[in-house]
Structure formats: structure tokens, C-alpha cells
Amino acid sequence: MVTLADVAARAGVSISAVSKVLSGDPSLRVTEPTRERIKAAARELNYRPNFAGRALKSARTQVLGIVVPDLTNALFTDLMDGVEDAAREAGYVVLLGRSDDPRPDAEVYQRLLGEGRVDGLIVQVVDGVAPDGLGALLENNPPVVLINSVAPGQVGSVLLDDVAGARVATEHLLDLGHRRLALVNGLPTSLTAERRRQGFREALADAGVPRRGLLETRLGYRPENGRAALEEILAAPRRPTGVVVANVNAAIGLLAAAREHGVRVPEDLSVVTVHDSWTAENTWPPLTAVSMRFYAMGRAAVDTLVARLDSGTVRDVVITDPPPQLTVRESTAPPSA
Amino acid sequence: MVTLADVAARAGVSISAVSKVLSGDPSLRVTEPTRERIKAAARELNYRPNFAGRALKSARTQVLGIVVPDLTNALFTDLMDGVEDAAREAGYVVLLGRSDDPRPDAEVYQRLLGEGRVDGLIVQVVDGVAPDGLGALLENNPPVVLINSVAPGQVGSVLLDDVAGARVATEHLLDLGHRRLALVNGLPTSLTAERRRQGFREALADAGVPRRGLLETRLGYRPENGRAALEEILAAPRRPTGVVVANVNAAIGLLAAAREHGVRVPEDLSVVTVHDSWTAENTWPPLTAVSMRFYAMGRAAVDTLVARLDSGTVRDVVITDPPPQLTVRESTAPPSA
DNA sequence: CATCGTTGCTCAAACGTTTGATCAGGTCAA
DNA sequence: TTGACCTGATCAAACGTTTGAGCAACGATG
């Protein structure tokens, strides 16, 4: 390993001179030849500052952690891309932790924040944990940003505009003439599910469609939850003609189950999903979907966290720009009856 | 931040006594009461060893890096799960880097290995880079393990049994009675594509089916590549009745394109894919697939890397147990003609 | 010629941990 | 009573970096 001392020896100067030149310390006065000699020596020896030494001295690691409960969730890929890109631009690298344990003393939090491995943490709370369950984790006001979740008060959070997303999806079905709608939603404790329900209801209210009698399932965001939701829909007394699915993976499961049950999409049932992804355009029929900006959410989470670290600013962000956008494919059509 | 000094002060002993007791140094003799006092003090203060201090002294970070070119690739989720699990068991955390830049001086390698942020690196080389292009990266024999790729000589690697996977898939079509087969494969420079071709050819040879005239596309592993491959298949003079697709994402794209072109699966065309995933069972028709052990590959990569770090042992591993296994769904059937 | 200010660097401490060397005090045998 | 040995700790250096304080040399000023 090449250290500052090696570079200093080769350039014939002191360690501190090297350190200051290489890190661009403006308080140091050096002659141009010396500066060049130092830079040349560093280049020739291929010097890289040692991370641990720097971290120890500066109490900063330039590492951001992200903790997610499930890598399979379709949002993860885009989210992670956004996090990676924004982190790189801000001079950080990303450490990934997976944990579905929301307890504040969960190993992953101790490991990452407690041992000082990361400067800050982006946490996607596992679906099905009430936000107030996080109270203890956030007690000491650690540098944490929550995504898709909010905690009262002192911690930053980043949300997508779930209300608008669900509203756009619902309005699409209403515009096609559907009146008997269903909402295939996330777990009862999920905050995003709550917000998507709100958008669904707002759209109905605006269109003057009475809400009563409309089916809502709260089974979760996974493919098998979508499958189960279809069973509920088929068992309903007044079968809906259109369904808003709150997650693309669940929609894919629902679509597969529909085929198996001989339910034709979109003739018998229109399906629109909140959250677009490459998988949505390769189903049969291709899924009409509302794009959610997970990439932007990842970026915003990093920006929020970095602002928090740099200036102590805590903020809650809702990604409203660009707004959720509908892509009409072939899983929706006017009701046939 | 709680340091060893804080714990030492509270327990009324020296810093080194605390360090040795907490890290279980057997060379230290302490009375039981002192030991208890130290442990109690650490507990009460919620002491966590500072990562940077430890890393600086020990020249070990207990961090493994993984660099992948594309998070969308269906293999990533399972792979990452395996890496995470094995890393945790071995006492490491995982740092994720994304890079499609195979040059050895790519920023990500400098950042992770050069600055000593990680003890070792798991690298999935971007598809389309010849293995020998890695020569320079591996020149100084860094602690790197390659997945799905091999480099001549000194570096460890982990491969799946692609030959067997493709062979099982091909044999399934042959068993159904198909004789005009096509292979929808990865890019010409992809090592896995080469190995899957080999399995395909071996199965044909064993069945005594002449190879000439059989179509192979080398367009890549992404959904749009699968779509393009279908076009090639439709344009072929003697249209195949069965197709082996080397990647599940490509298979999904191919399936979607088939629907759009009115090609019925499996009646007009049987499709089997190498690599099973939850997406394969939710297509229409559900995809017959050969499971590949990406989770096991992730675990093996970590094990190999840790062995390398602990004992300097370099090894090349091929995951053959459990072997690739066929799951017959509805995308394959005997040829109709 | 003494004083001062500036230039161009170097010195040394500090971050928190690990670890081999050391040491005070006691016990035991000769 | 002295030396040898053991017990139960402490001391101090080191890892590589950052950074404020310090300092020698020199030209300019009074």
C-alpha cells in the first residue's frame, strides 16, 4: 500500500505538504515546482488515500447505507439506480443492507450506524410496520431518511405522489366508462397503500361515483397477493369491470390468475397498475400502467440525506415532478356490457 | 460517540484491558469481577467499536464489494440474496457498486479496492467483454472473484453449470419430439452464452439430431433482444418448432413478441428458458424453465472470496449441486405438425 | 543593523483501535 | 531473606490521515 509517507519521501517533502497539496488545501503556500513534484510522485506511485485513515481522522466515511426489506420488489431496481447515481455525484459510495427487522436495535442498524460504517442511512421500512413503530430507531435523531414512509417530526422522508398515481389510474378507468371498480391494494399497515386508497377515492368522488359497494383488497404487493386478490374479485357479489392494482408485481400475478380462470383482460376485466416497469410491457396483454418515479425517489433520498449531513437541514419531500404518467397499453378497454 | 476510553473510565481500568476483554483476547488474564465490570460498562454505555479505528489498525474492513453491470438482470436479486446471507454469516457487510466499465482503472475499482474500502471484490463482468480484457485489472493479483466469467490463472471464479442448464432445456424439447430447434443466446462475447451453446449442442449430438440448419441468435439477454430474436426466427427459411432461450428476461420479451405476431405458444412454438424466476410463472403461458442456482452462486462467491482472504487459497468453482432442474409449465408441448 | 512581515514549508497532535512489551505486587521455594 | 515466578493488569507504539501551530530563511522597512 502506498501511503502519504511514500509520496513525501519520493517528492522530498513532508507528509503534511503532500496531504495539503493533494487535498487542495488553500491555506498552504507552495511553489509551483514543489506542487508539481508532489503531484508527479503521487501519480507515479499511484497513490490512493487510505479510506480508514481518512475516516478515522475526519469522522466521515463518505458511505451512505440503504436498507431495504426485499430486493424482489419491482421498485428496488429503479430506486437503487437513482441512489447510486446521486451518491456517486455527491462523492459517496453505497452500502446495501437488507433487513425486514424494523426494530431499532436490529443488527443492521448497529452494524452500519453504530459502528460508524456509514455517514447516513436510507431506510425503506418493511411494509406492514406502522410508522410509529420506528420511534425508537429515530429517538436519537440519527442521520436517517425514510422512503415511502414518514415518521412524526424530526427525521427526513421521501415519498412518491401515491395519491396522484392512484388517482390517474382510477380516472383512466372512469374515463373509459367503468363504474364498478375495485382497488387491489397493499397491506393494511402500509402507508403507501393508505395513500393510494386516498387517490382512488378522490377520483371516484370527483366523478360522482358512489364508493359504497366497491371492493378493496389489502393483501400486499407481491405476485401471489395479486393472485389471491383476483379470487376475491371473482367471489364478489357484483363483479367489478375494472381494477386498479397498487403494485406492478401484484398486477402481474393478478393477470396470470385471470388467464387461469378464463377471465379475459380487458374484455371481462380492465386492469391498470400503479407503477410501470419493463415487466409491465411484456405481459399479455401488456399492462396499462402509471409510471412512478422511483429513480427520482432514489435521487431525492440521497439529496435529502446529504443536505442533512452537510447542513443539518431536515426535510420531507414528495416527488411531484415529473407527475405520475399514464401509459395506455392493452389491459384496459371500455366495459363490454 | 462512545469510545474504549469512555468504557475504560467507567470501569476504572485501562483502555487496553477493555479492548482485550471485549475482543476476547485469550492472552489477557483478568479477574472475573474486573471482566464483569468492563462488560457491564460497555453495555451501559452501549459501546460499539469504531469501524475506522479498527480498520486502520487491522488493515481489514470486513466489507466485501460486489460490482455488477446491471441491476435489472433477473439474476441479480437471487445472487444478491446469496451474497448478503453468506457475507453476514462470515461477518462481513456488502458494498454494492454498479459499473459497466470493465477497464481496470475504472473509478469503481479505484474507489473500492484502491482506497481500501473493501477487503475483496466480487465482480460480474459486463456481458460482451472478453475475459482476457480483464488481464490488467487482475494484474496485481487483487482479492477478486469473478462470477460468470473466468480469467486465465491467478484469480478465483464462480460459474453456474450453464452447460448442464442448456442441455436439460434442450433435452426437454427433444423429448417432446421437437427436431427443428433454435437457440436464443447472449452476445457473441459472452462466456455464459458460449457455455449454453455447448450444452445445446451436446444435447443435439446425444440425440443424433444434426446441427446444421439450426438457428442461433446472439443478440443478448434483455427483453428487447428476445423480441428481436423472435423476428429472426419468423424470418428463418425453416421455422423452428421449439426454442431454447438462454435468459428468462429475453424469454419474456420473446413471448410478448410472439403474442403480437400471432404466434401461438406452445402450439406453434415451444419455448423453454434457462433460468427460472418468479416472473417465469406469471407469464402467459407460464414459462417452462430450467432453474439456475444464482443464490448458491452468490454464496459460493462469498465463500471463495473469504477463503482467498483468510488463507490465500484461489479456486475456481462450478456450482453443480443442486443440478439445474426443469420445471415444466405451459410454454412447451409436442410439435403440432 | 535591528525589526517586521512574508514565504514556504515542517512539526506534532489527534482520531480509536490493537497488541507486544512491561511492570508492580504478591506467593513460594530455597 | 533473597530470588524466581506468577498474576493482573498497564504502557506505548503503531496504523494513515488531517490540520493548526510553528519556524527558518529572506527581503523589505525604519
Automatic annotation (TrEMBL), chains A, B:
<keyword id="KW-0805">Transcription regulation</keyword>
<dbReference type="InterPro" id="IPR028082">
    <property type="entry name" value="Peripla_BP_I"/>
</dbReference>
<dbReference type="InterPro" id="IPR046335">
    <property type="entry name" value="LacI/GalR-like_sensor"/>
</dbReference>
<dbReference type="InterPro" id="IPR000843">
    <property type="entry name" value="HTH_LacI"/>
</dbReference>
<dbReference type="Pfam" id="PF00356">
    <property type="entry name" value="LacI"/>
</dbReference>
<dbReference type="InterPro" id="IPR010982">
    <property type="entry name" value="Lambda_DNA-bd_dom_sf"/>
</dbReference>
<keyword id="KW-0804">Transcription</keyword>
<protein>
    <submittedName>
        <fullName>LacI family DNA-binding transcriptional regulator</fullName>
    </submittedName>
</protein>
<feature type="domain" description="HTH lacI-type">
    <location>
        <begin position="2"/>
        <end position="58"/>
    </location>
</feature>
<dbReference type="GO" id="GO:0003677">
    <property type="term" value="F:DNA binding"/>
</dbReference>
<dbReference type="Pfam" id="PF13377">
    <property type="entry name" value="Peripla_BP_3"/>
</dbReference>
<keyword id="KW-0238">DNA-binding</keyword>
